[in-house]
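Hi everyone,

Forwarding the result from last night's run.
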Amino acid sequence: MTSPVATLWTSASTSGTLAHMAVAYAGLPVDVRFISLRGGEHQTPDYLAINPKGEVPALQLPSGGTVTELPAILTWVADMAPASGLLPPAHPQRAIALSWLAWCHLQMGRSFSVAFQPERMVDGDAAAAAVLRAASIKRAMAALEFADRHVAPDATLMGNGRITAPDLFLALLASFAGYLKLDISGLAALNALMAKVFGEPAIAAALAKEQAAG
């Protein structure tokens, strides 16, 4: 049995799902461990010793280091499994792919995450949270519309015929549309990208594992 190259700490149906999708698609022997955010497991002393930020995902390396933040984790996965094509090996295509990763990460933080938990941004003020949520949902929809216009005819962002890390990230963001009651049925290119990503057997298996863990 192949020894794990790292341990991925995550929680089902969170941004950590993206890291899980990536390691599954890359075929890396990573030990995936789920913790409960609702149960406060991310704030236990044992987990804080792994990731002092108290967040998921966190990629614990055998060397003792921990990689956090999605762009960094996805880059690590791509570099550990170059044959996966998750990131182009050379510039300028690699720089363009990293630009898309950074953009998706920004949208996750400024729009989608805020829309899900606006009260955290306004100290529990219900009225302010409602206004913030409405604004964040508009930003999330605008982001998805922008991305739809940039999906290539082959249903990828890079247009190189292969699924890359930015495609995984965008597909995950788009999957949140249902939770936010956003109608993306008219975004044909974006829906084609989602079908391409979620149709991958390894990714489908990872998502089934997430559902079982949730």
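The chain has two domains: 6-84+203-213, 93-200.

Cheers,
N.
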